[in-house]
Each structure stands twice: as C-alpha cells, then as structure tokens.
Amino acid sequence: MPIKIIIEKCTGCSLCIKACPFDAIRILDKKASIDLNKCNLCGACVEACKLKAILLEKPQPIPLAKDIKDYKDIWVFIEQKNSKIQPVSYELLGKAQELAKKLSCQVVGVLLGYNLDDQLDELIWRGADSIILVDSEKLANFQDEPYTNVLVKLINKYKPEILLCGATAIGRALISRVAVKIKAGLTADCTGLDIDPERKILLQTRPAFGGNIMATIISPDYRPQMATVRHKVMQPMEPDKKRKGKVIREVFDNSSYTSRARLVEIIEEVESLVNLAEADIIVSGGRGMGRAENFRLLEELARVLGGAVGASRAAVDAGWMPYSHQIGQTGRTVSPKIYIACGISGQIQHLVGMQSSKIIVAINKDPFAPIFKVATYGIVGDLFQIVPALTKRFKELKAKGR
Amino acid sequence: MNVIVCIKQVPQTTDVKINPQTNTLIREGVESIINPFDMYAIEEGVRIKEKYGANTTVITMGPPQAEEALREALSMGIDEAILISDRAYAGSDTWATSYTLANAIRKIGNFDLILCGKQASDGDTAQVGPGISSHLDIPQVTYVKRIQQIKDNIIRVERMMEEGYHVIESPLPCLLTVVKEINEPRLPSLKGMLRAKQAKITVWTQKELNLDPQHIGLSGSPTQVIKIFTPAPRAGGQILSGDPEEIAGKLLELLKSEIS
C-alpha cells in the first residue's frame, strides 16, 4: 500500500479531505480513510495533515542509465513559422536567463528551420548565450517526425539539464513525443518556473482542473527536465545589442529529416487580425452580442487597440464566430494583458480560458453575472453604447499620438 | 479497418468551485464524466465505422468505476471496450500512462487508427496522445478539426494551428488527437444503451499486460507532484459607473498605461 493513514495519529479533523483534489478521503469512525480507487498518490493530503498521520511511501528510485551530472545548460526550443521566430520564444529566453543565473549555466537557443540567419542576432540580444542551428529546407515547416528525430539526436549529443518550449500547438505535439523517446519528465503548460535553491532542480508550477488548482511538479531523477510554458506569462528581455554568442551549426543525414506524414498545405485564416494566443489585448463577445453582425463593433475596438477578437462558446455555438476564436475549456486558453469581455456571463468553462489575464474588463447588463467576480473593472450597462464610446475614445488617444 | 479510441474518466470540473472562506475546493456532488474532448474522439470513431466500415474499440486506464465511461462509449456505437486497471498503474504521469496505453494497444494487435481527445479537462496536458504515438513509433497529427478522407491506407486531415490550419496526409496506422470542431457528439440511442448495459467489458490488469515495473505507476513516472495549492482568488474589482461616455473616459485613464 503506497499511502496509508496512521490511525493512532489521526484525529479525524478532515483537513486532508479539503486538500484532496480527487475526493478520495472520507471520515469513517472518526478516522480518515482513503479510497485507493480514487487516490492519485499526489501527496496533497500529506502536506495538509498537521499531525503527520498520512504516510506516502516514496517509490524506490530506479537506477538510471544516464548519469544526470553530465547534463548541463538550459535549452530553449525556438519556434519559427514561415522562418519567423515566434514571440513566445523570446519570453522563454528571458526566463531561461533568470534561471541560468541561479544554476550558473548557459542559455542555448535551439533552432530548427530554413533561412534563419538574419534572426540569430536578435536571439542572442534577447538572452541566448549560444545557438544550435539546424538549417535545412526539409525543416522549413514544422513536421512532428523530423523535428522529433533531430531534437532527440541533439539532446543525446549535448545533454541539456533543462529544456523549455512554448505550450503552443507545435510545442505540445513535439515535446511530448520527444520526452517519451528519451524517457524524460515533462510538465505541460507551466505558468511558473523556478530553481530549488538546495537541490538545484527545476520547480514547475502549472494550473490543473481548469485553473482551479495549481500544482508544483519536479523531475529530479531524469534529464533533461522538460516543460512547456504558456504564452505571455514570462517576460522577454529588452534586446541588448552588446551581447555576443556563438552559433553552432548541425547537419544530419537525410534519414533524420524524413517524415511518414506529409504536410500538404498551410492555410492561413486571414479573418483574424492578430493571433489570439499572442495578442496583448483581446476583445471578446458572448451571448449578449445578439447576432453575428454585432461582432463588427468588437472588431473595430480590437483594431483600434491592436488586439484580437475572441468569443465565448455560446457565441460560437450560435454560429456568430468561427471555432478558432473560442476561448474557454473547449477552446483556447489565453492570458493577454487586457481582456475585455462583452456580453459574456462568465460561466466557469469560459473563466478557465481567460482568468490568468492581467486585467479583465467586463461589460454586462446583468449586475449579478459571474464575470464580475473575476473582473478588474466591471461595467454594468449596455455594451452597444459602451463599446462604441470606448472605440471613439481610444481612437482619439491614438490620433493624439499620446 | 480497426479504430481504437482512448478515453479518460474525469471529474466534472464545471462543479469544482472554491470556498472563499477556506480557499479550498468544494466538491460536493461532483460526478465523473467522460473527458469532454474524448466525446469527439468517440463520435469520430463511430462516424468512421458508419462511413468506411470499421471495428471500433474503446480503451481507458483507470479505477474500476471507469467502466461507466466505457459503457457510455458503447452506448454511442463503439463495438468493444477494454478497461486497463491495476493498483500498479496508480500515480502514473503522462509518460507512464502513455506507455501503459501503448502497450495495451499493442496487445490488441490490429489497429489502423488511434483517436484521442486533444487533452483531458482535469490535467490539461495534451501529452498522452502524442506520447502513445511516440511509444508505438507511428505518425501523429494533433488538434485535428476535420478528417477529409481515408483512402488507399492514407488519411488526410486538417490540423488546427494558431493562425489557420495545416492539411496533412499520413499513412495508416497513425494517431490523431481531435478538437471540438470536428463533430457534434450524438446522444446514445435506446438500443445503444441497452446493448451497453449488457456488454461484457474486458479488464486487463498487470497480470495480463505484464509491463516493465520500471515504466509503470508512480515509480515509473519521471515527474512528481510535490505541492498542490489553490491559486489566490482574483482580487475584487472596481465597478465603473456613469453614462457610457463617462465610463469610456474612466476606463481610458485606467488602461492608458497598458496600451502601447
């Protein structure tokens, strides 16, 4: 039994019940009892118990083939699309520099793609101490298999201690595949990263249960320690043109670049002004928008602010906006600087997709709408009057050139 | 053609709320459901069966009560169900989970297409689907929003990306993870529910699968959860009032510094 209650110590105080995210503990005969069919051995109860009455047997560490002392430096997988480096990569380089100071190690940007030489300086100015570049026409666009092959070979050759990657469509598909191949620990969609000062290991904090709980995860016995990181959470460095770094070019044989799956076509959907995941400002509409045409009001405001337009599930299900704009549990998760929710009541399924936004503005007719509980600024009123008034004001502000 | 759908039973997270006094989760009356994304995978499996003629199998790894989730999938039209359940698999992270599922799929033997939801609503990792294809060393396409066609052992799909989508062709066998846009899951028919109630569910434990103990459960998992906590609730906001022009003016002042 990997977890048990020490009956003599348990007073039935039920603190563990509150801590359990899996609803696996009950009080029977004034003592806690764990339902092992529900328990996930997460250890939350062990920490919550003030009487040390819960014992979680740590598994015997399995001797590893790899000697973890051989692994050093922090790698950032640099994501590019159309030979353009994605903003999330600069955010990760900024964070990696902060972590590297605590580990006294280097930050290495790992870049796969084609014709990228003109962007290497920028990577170094913004935090890469060196770059490993694999430049091939065959890697011009992301494909799961060749990118996995190449990254696995590079990891085996250079042995990084930590590998960070954006929690993007590409990052999540690629890094999951890589982690399995090399048996490394991988934590998804982190919003916090730090180094444990004593053990010098990566502390990875991420939301689970749609953001209702946070978990800190470690991978102490495996290398590299791998994490995907949410957009817009980490701060990029200001470019420092004095920074210097070397570029290591790697070439692989053709078999490493082959893919059984074939990318036939890339379709860009131009209706979106800005990529939602990367947008600093999102203007989002829900059921209160009434009909598809009314989203034009939001598009105008978004255009003035240089933002993107999002939608709640209700608005997407009504056919007013395409699914690619949906924010929430069954859509995208976003964390812009400013999220303006218009006519969105704020059901939990929507909140989990946007509650990590820095500032939330809510405009709703119903003063009791749940969205107001998470709003930084709440406006009870008619969005059809307030949104155009906002657009007008911000337009004037822009015209003045501030 | 043989289609395998991987599903997970999850708590209905919509019911998870935080008690503002104690800052803990309130879970009274939380029911277990099939992960919402997996419903699209089940539906797609049934549609492929109807369109191309396929044998469909649903599998899940979980405690004995995950059988309910399998029966629900059967009621929607999936042919067979396998439950992978053993205390030895408890505490698995995404590495160990995908290892266990991949080996169960190997034991099933014949498979052409594996379907998963894009991620589970409790863990939100999106790592198990690609993990399975990596263990099996087959091609994968994540975030699939449409299957265009399956012809001559090649599947052509649309993969959702941040700024549009990719059209991808892959030989079978391959693994897809699907997003909501792919379909609208059906409600089970009465006949389906009756069949599901009577169906026999195969259960595989560690005895049947005989997996390497180094790769399963808590001890086979590279990651460890060391702390779980509830995030600080967002601080109560400020209500802006006045006529629309006044409100717009106030908001402009408040947001000005954030807008470059």
CATH topology of the largest domain in chain A: Rossmann fold
Shape of chain B: globular
Shape, per Cα inertia axes of chain A = globular
**Helical/strand content category of chain B:** alpha/beta
CATH C-level class of the largest domain in chain A is Alpha Beta
Beta percentage of chain A is 25-35%
Low-confidence stretches of chain B: 18-26
Rg on CA atoms of chain B, Å: 22 Å
What is the CATH architecture annotation of the largest domain in chain A? 3-Layer(aba) Sandwich
Tell me how many strands of chain A there are: 22
State the oligomer: heterodimer
Describe what this molecule looks like in 3D.
The complex is a heterodimer of chains A (402) and B (260). By secondary structure, chain A is of the alpha/beta class. Chain A has three domains: 3-56, Alpha-Beta Plaits (2-Layer Sandwich), CATH 3.30.70.20; 68-257, Rossmann fold (3-Layer(aba) Sandwich); 276-399, TPP-binding domain (Rossmann fold). Chain A contains twelve helices and 22 strands. Chain A has helices at residues 15-19, 44-48, 87-103, 120-125, 144-158, 169-182, 254-257, 295-305, 313-317, 348-354, 371-374, 383-399; strands at 3-5, 25-28, 31-34, 54-56, 74-78, 80-81, 84-85, 107-113, 130-135, 162-166, 186-190, 192-195, 202-208, 213-218, 225-229, 246-249, 262-268, 281-285, 308-311, 338-342, 359-364, 377-380. In chain A, a hairpin with a 6-residue loop joins strand 12 and strand 13 (202-208). The mean pLDDT of chain A is 91. Chain B has helices spanning 36-52, 67-75, 94-108, 128-136, 190-198, 206-209, 244-255; strands spanning 2-7, 9-11, 17-19, 24-26, 32-34, 55-61, 80-84, 113-117, 140-151, 154-161, 164-171, 174-178, 202-204, 224-229, 238-240. With 260 residues, chain B is α/β, with parallel strands linked by helices. Chain B has a single domain (2-224), classed as 3-Layer(aba) Sandwich (Rossmann fold). Chain B has seven helices and 15 strands. Chains A and B meet through helix 5, helix 6, strand 11, strand 13 and strand 14 of A and helix 3, helix 4, strand 9, strand 10 and strand 11 of B.
